[in-house]
Amino acid sequence: MAMDEGQAVARLQGGDIGGLEALVRLYHARAVRSAYLVTRDLDTAEDVAQAAFLKAYEHIRTFDARRPFGPWFLKGVLRDAVKAATKRDRTVPLAGESVDEGNPARSEIVDPDAGPAALWAQRETAEVVMAALGALPPAERAVIVQRYYLGLSEAEMARAADCPPGTVKSRLHAARGRLRTLLQPLQQDSEVRS
Amino acid sequence: MKEPKIDQLLQALAAEPAKDARDPWPAIRARVNHRHPPRRAGIRAVPRLAWGGVAAAVVVVAIAGASVLDAARPRSVTAAEILDRMQIEVQGNAMLGSESAGGCEPVVNPTEMTDRVGQILGVSGDRVRQAMRIQMIRVAPPPGAAGAAVPAPGAEPVVIRIDPGAPAGAGGQAGVPVPAGDAVYVNGPLPDPMARLAERLGVSREQVHQAFADPACPERFMMRFPGSASEPQYQLAAQRLGITAQQLVDAVRATAPMPPPGAPGVGQAPVSPDQMIQRIASELGVTPEQFRAALEQAGGNAGSRGPDFLLPR
């Protein structure tokens, strides 16, 4: 029988690496996806996720097992993803970066059950959203990922970032502002279609 | 654009990616084990996996490299030496290799170790090494037989004939089919896949060895087989070699082919250390006790307590 999160954490805190395996099964996909949304590079995202599990293994004793593991863990994933993306962005400009058609992480954004026309529109939308996200600074990408992918509230984000809620609100506002500009063409296009 | 519209667009981010067919756990476990090698228990575990691989006949890869079975204590170095620069990997699940636990210990030349064993037994070191290799590959089925390995493109099957009673290693002839029973069949390169890998990559063997060197302890190396491009050691090795990780993985697969799942021996219980001692001793024409004593003596001379990886638990 699969372990639940609490059992997995308890086992890991007891030195049983089997606990980590259970946590990998629970959080790997979300960790890679979160890191990918920030780094926009699947290999880097995979590496960030692996490193985060390693860190979780090393620091699990400092984790308060009464709290959920996910936010604690994914906070580290995002922090490292921002670092990796910042480093990468210094050498690889995101402006004008082409959409990676073959990237599975990107293509999975669309709903596979939609009809051809809707699918195309969804895909187009997803690509534009991804491109817009990629044009943001990594730290702003991270707050967008926290809010819209991980579904954290502003209060949860503030707790995770260990900063006042106002700071989170301000970062989110700035990120949304940039996205608003970047997504303007999509909005116009959708108005023409409708 | 109104705020709700942005929110709506960004909901697209919430779609979970399709489940990756690859199991992420082995790579993460390898990373954890590399950083935090299992202590005493790990020393037992690595040889067990190695010998299990021999029995499973999945693949035997002989790769020169010091202290491939090295682990946390000086005596484990002996295991590496005894194996004569051999690394055995099993279906990509077991990562053997350098797993240093806090600092690099001096590595004794593995060839010297097998030479010592040979001296004690009154045979050449080459014969000891060959006997060990033969025992590790004996379980492979003949080419064309049910479950026989299918060589990867570019890797010709190698057939080694061992005449009963002949000195170990005598009569080996590549590419010559011989009747089953009298021969050891090997699909893939016999003694040195690392050299073949180097040849395929157009680099020196030393470069390949260095590429897989443990960053924390350059004298040691690690290599997961068959590996994947997402694994840290392959990424690092590829970076060192100036190629992509995928190119490296492809080259490794091509030079060290694996039998298909379901081949005879795959999934069978591993050969015990005692059985392996008996087989190698038989190959050398000595008793198991003599071989065991030689191993222990050679290990003791090397400053270790002995090759306990071969001894029954």
Task: Summarize the structure in short.
By secondary structure, chain A is mainly alpha-helical. Chain A has helices spanning 5-13, 17-39, 42-59, 69-91, 104-107, 116-135, 138-149, 154-161, 165-182, 184-193.
Chart the SSEs and their pairings.
The complex is a heterodimer of chains A (194) and B (313).
Chain A lengths: L4 H9 L3 H23 L2 H18 L9 H23 L12 H4 L8 H20 L2 H12 L4 H8 L3 H18 L1 H10 L1
Chain B lengths: L2 H8 L14 H11 L4 H17 L17 H9 L27 H12 L3 H13 L20 E4 L21 E4 L6 H9 L3 H7 L1 E2 L2 E5 L10 H10 L3 H11 L17 H12 L3 H14 L12
Antiparallel strand pairs in B: 1-2, 3-4
Helix pairs in contact in B: 4-5, 5-6, 5-12, 6-11, 7-8, 7-10, 8-9, 9-10, 11-12
Notes on the structure:
The complex is a heterodimer of chains A (194) and B (313). Chain A is mainly α. Helices cover 75% and strands 0% of the residues of chain A. Chain A is built from 10 helices and no strands. Chain A has helices spanning 5-13, 17-39, 42-59, 69-91, 104-107, 116-135, 138-149, 154-161, 165-182, 184-193. The radius of gyration of chain A is 18 Å and the shape is globular. Chain A starts with a helix and ends with a helix. In chain B, a hairpin with a 2-residue loop joins strand 3 (213-214) and strand 4. Chain B is built from 12 helices and 4 strands; from the N terminus they run H-H-H-H-H-H-E-E-H-H-E-E-H-H-H-H. The termini of chain B are far apart. Chain B has helices at residues 3-10, 25-35, 40-56, 74-82, 110-121, 125-137, 193-201, 205-211, 232-241, 245-255, 273-284, 288-301, and strands at residues 158-161, 183-186, 213-214, 217-221. In chain B, helix 5 packs across helix 6, helix 6 packs across helix 11 and helix 11 packs across helix 12. In chain B, the strands form 2 sheets. A two-stranded antiparallel sheet of chain B has the order 1-2. In chain B, strands 3-4 form a two-stranded antiparallel sheet. By secondary structure, chain B is mostly helical. At the A-B interface, helix 2, helix 3, helix 6, helix 7 and helix 9 of A face helix 1 and helix 2 of B.
